[in-house]
Amino acid sequence: MAATGVQDSATIVNNLISDYYRSAADLAPDRISEREFGVGNYDIKIAQRHMSFPSERELRNYLSANSVPYVSASAAYYRFPSARPMDRKGWLGSELVFDLDVTDMDLACQRSHGKSWVCAICFDEVRKETARLIYDFLIPDFGFSESEIKVNFSGNRGYHVHVSSADILKLGAAARREITAYISGSGIEFGDLFRVGSYATASDRAGKKLLGPRPTDLGWKGKVAKKFTESLNAGIDSLVQIGLDREIATKIYRKKELMKLGLNSGNWDMIAGIKSKEQVWKRMLETMAIAQGDRIDSNVTNDPSHLLRLANSIHGGTGLIAKKLRSPRELYRFDPTKDAIAFRKGFATIDANTTFELRMNGQKFGPYGGRIRVPIYVAAYLYLKGYAKIAAVE
Ligand SMILES: [Zn+2]
């Protein structure tokens, strides 16, 4: 690209976006002609919807010609995707979609850097959470196969998961709500998992014993028992994290081996001397359920006509690619700060003001306060996040 001292930051970034789309590969979702599209500008992410494209070529040309900063596609398939209002589109079915965003997670790092900045810990935690949704819930509990699950980075601070199994395409909003409720643990009562039983003989121990799930149980029961066993192995801090008082956690941890023996046979009452046991376990369960529920944006899952960022399109708030992963398994090694970079060639001079270090492409950038020369992807990222102006590109 030629020196462009006279261009402003917006023009420079628009040119980068246009260039990206000119050669972008794998942009079309399956059954592209049955999808509704929406496009946005820097102020409104979906400013215009009810659009459709007959093929990838038309889509790519449109995005390149208009330097579109945000493009979304429906999780739904329609006979007439551009018809309006919605009920004239002729709904044919919808993928089941999940939107995981790090801003829904309560991370300690966010309290120092705020919600708009995304640090390495943020990226890592939301990546692990997405893997957990797929490998702890969607595959074992719902029986979906890896090949029916598509994952893409959102382009900013999360991931989108699309399930396109034939079994779920026709599910309505109510059935989708049931799936959300299951995954967020919101419908589970203490009594579904635990019950109070009696010891065989009165001399075994005073009182009643608490019978609960075993690690080998299916669904939520097994998850609760496994999570507790994991926390027990990891130590006192882990037990506190799942909702136990530190004093109780310490007592339990000291008798870890005894507790584990009990858990394997569903006896959650192996530790003597803890008062109000039911309350302790109930709180633990509640803590676990909330921890999972907060991280799934249930509006997306429950609305079959929702539009989501098009996989492999540019995110206009970062200049990163909403990169499509080859398989869900790629989550275990995916790094958006390397793998989702769109603008790889060239450098820019920027006037930047940042408080935190930015890591991209394996390097550290900043904090900055003034004029600096950086790779073009760093310039675009900081400009689009509102931390820099681009003075010139080379
Ligand atoms: Zn963070």
Number of helices: 14
Characterize the biggest β-sheet.
4 strands, antiparallel
Overall structural class, as computed from helix and strand content, comes to alpha+beta
Multimeric state: single chain
Written account of the structure:
With 394 residues, the chain is of the alpha+beta class. It folds into two domains: 187 residues, DNA primase, PRIM domain (Alpha-Beta Complex); 104 residues, Helicase, Ruva Protein, domain 3. The protein is 37% helix and 18% strand. The chain contains 14 helices and 16 strands. The strands form six sheets. The protein has a four-stranded antiparallel sheet with strand order 2-1-3-11, with no helix packed on it. The chain has a three-stranded antiparallel sheet with strand order 6-8-7. Strands 15-12-16 form a three-stranded antiparallel sheet, with helices on one face. Strand 1 and strand 2 form a beta hairpin. Helix 1 runs antiparallel to helix 2 and helix 5 crosses helix 11. The protein starts with 8 loop residues before the first helix and ends with a strand. 38% of the residues are buried. The N terminus is likely disordered. Zinc ion (ZN) binds next to helix 3 and helix 4.
